[in-house]
Amino acid sequence: MTAAGVVSGRPSVLRLLAFVAAIAVLVTGCASVPNTSAVRQGEAVGGDREAGAFIRVLARPPAPGADQTQIVEGFLAASAAFDSNHEVARQYLAPEIREAWDTSVGTVVYDPTSLDLTESAETEIDLNAGEVARISGRGEYAASGAGSQVEAQYDLRQVDGQWRISRLPSGLLLSTLDVARAFRSFSLMFVDASGVRLVPDNVVVPAALPGVSTTLVRALLAGPTPWLDPAVSTAFPPGTTLEAVAAPIVDGIATVQLSADVLSAGADARRQLSAQLVWTLRQLPEVTGVRIRAGDTALAVPGADEVQSRDAWPSFDPDGLPADATAYAVVDGELVSGVGDSAEPVPGPLGDGSITPQSVAVSLDGSAAATLSGNGLLVGQWETFSANPVLSGTDLTRPTWDPFDTVWVVDRTGSGAAVWRVQLGGSPERVEADELQGRRVLDFRMARDGARAAIILEEGGRGLLFEARIEREADGIRIGALRRVESELVDVQQVSWADATSLAVLARSERGTLEPFVIDPNSAVTAPGSLPEVRSLAAAPARPLLAVTANSQVWVDRGFGWRAEGSATEVAYPG
Q: Is 337 helix (H, G, I), strand (E, B) or coil?
């Protein structure tokens, strides 16, 4: 177990981070962390998702006469109760380390079915288990690689005739079941490179006590997590804090009283920070509006009322799709908008069969498209779409659009992956992607916020799913900081962004069949329902999941199972 350190009887400083102290007061949230079941059945993409009910963990204190193994088992179980800074769990510790045990360094999540406790000596218990994930002190959830193991050692001694732990690793060690009960997921909202849309920063936090609105505001003011930080910004001026003790919700209105530092924000920044607050707090169903104050007065925000509705700032929507966005399909060699009986050919050469679409991608505003032709990339607006490639490659992945009217594609060359971007009407530009060098990319999809990408890499003959951030600096654009998204699926072949925080994939589970799955922000995998011989899929926020089977049948998941709706060789949503 690679924890930050080991707590022993020697003096130690208790390093409780302010953020972790704040997140220990949560009570409810938006999604749960995966349990020991690799795949679960669930609702369709775009359907209503009710927040899971929080199950309070009731910890039991040490039983009189418990042996060494029972003490360690009891301590592990009690660690999932966050009340009063793990007050009950600390009763399992020897007096000299009760205050020194530092839970702020993060959490290692293990599979309880693999837990093995061994008494290697009378005063020593060794722990071994399969490692599932790690949660940082800031709440970042990172899936561990397949086969990862956690190892820990617990030393014990007698205290008044009862065994107690005298030495243990720093941080928390929790089972997947504990985390599913004790944690919830939220998205902190930050500003993209253009300053006109929001990017979610997903965190998982303990759900133990009241105070969620205060916790979210403090976490937002603390800035983005280290992983996302280079790809986003915050509109809150440096030094801005929550001046009041809390951000209470009264009659549906959350009041956020900020320090006077916020007054230095200009008009655009005030709109942006308002959007950050509203979109972050609207995750709480009881919030109907947000009031922002600077000291004792209302913060003047151009174009906004004193109480901003939970539906304010729709243009900052992190999902990044217009309300009228529709699906597209390739039918008999022609590109059509809509699926089934409602389908109509798109304007121009792609719609009249002059150019046969292959791996088509449509821009977010629906005004342009990109497609492959042999080893070339074609890009253009509907009426003026040209058969002349703007980029030639060795083996190109299917194209994908960002919100800046730019198409991205990966050329799988003999020496590894070469990432290219083409601005609509512009020339190809090579994108720096050092972490992809020497690796084979199976699929590459830009998030609709333009700050992140989902990438499938081939390793050991199977596809593994990763997420990367897009760093847009004055000296160029870089793809960096690959992190594993999930570790339960055996082989991932295709990916689409279901919404700003979830991914839809075509993958194989341990059952071995290739089928659609949905992965939530905390790597929990849901199977919408099996389909035979699925070849491709498409997903988008608030829209049904689409799948195409080997016989060119289009299947639509509208929340009550798959239903056949027309035929096509491929389907796509804008993005």
A: strand
Q: What is the pLDDT of residues 372-393, one digit of tens each?
A: 998 899 999 999 999 999 999 9
Residue 287 near residue 309, CB atoms below 8 Å: no
Distances (CA, A) of 368 to 349, 364, 575: 12, 9, 11
Measured in degrees and rounded to the nearest 5, phi and psi for residue 230 equal -70, -10
Phi, psi of 196 (to 5 degrees): -120, 0
Integer Cα distance of 34 and 346 in angstroms: 41
- The CA distances from residue 520 to 42, 91, 121, 240, 353, in Å, are 11, 36, 42, 32, 38
Helix (H) / strand (E) containing 271: helix 267-281
Q: In what order do the strands lie in the sheet with 452-459?
A: 440-446, 452-459, 462-473, 476-484
How many of the other CB atoms lie within 10 Å of CB of 555?
A: 24
In angstroms, the CA 63 to CA 385 distance is 75
The CA distance from 408 to 365, in Å, is: 16
Q: Give percent of the chain with pLDDT exceeding 70.
A: 90
Tell the residue number behind the tokens 């990763």, with chain if given. 466
Among 161-170, 239-248, 286-295, 527-536, whose mean pLDDT is lowest?
527-536
Q: What is the distance, to the nearest Å, from the Cα of residue 269 to the centroid of all Cα atoms in its chain?
A: 26
Name the residue among 478, 497, 471 with its Cα closest to residue 436. Answer: 478
- The tokens of 318 are what? 């992190």
Distances in Å between the Cα of 395 and the Cα atoms of 56, 358, 373, 388, 446 are 52, 13, 11, 17, 19
Residue 485: left if φ>0, alpha if ψ -120 to 50, beta else—which one?
A: alpha
- Return the bridge partners of 473, or none: 476
SS3 177: helix
HEC states along 193-254? CCCCCEEEEEEEEECCCCCHHHHHHHHHHCCCCCCCHHHCECCCCCCCCECCCCCCEECCEE
Each residue's pLDDT tens digit, 432-456: 999 998 899 999 999 999 999 999 9
* Domain spans of the chain, in order of start: 6-182, 235-317, 328-572
| CATH class as words, domain 328-572 | mainly beta
SS3 assignment, position 26: coil
How far apart, in Å, do the first and last CA atoms of the chain sit? 40
**Encoding tokens for residue 356?**
């046969």
469-to-418, 432, 502 alpha-carbon distances in Å = 16, 12, 15
- 3-state DSSP call for residue 89? helix
User: What's the rounded Cα separation, in Å, for the pair 55 and 357?
Assistant: 50
| DSSP structural state of residue 74 | H
Dump strand ranges (E) for 83-123: 106-110, 116-121
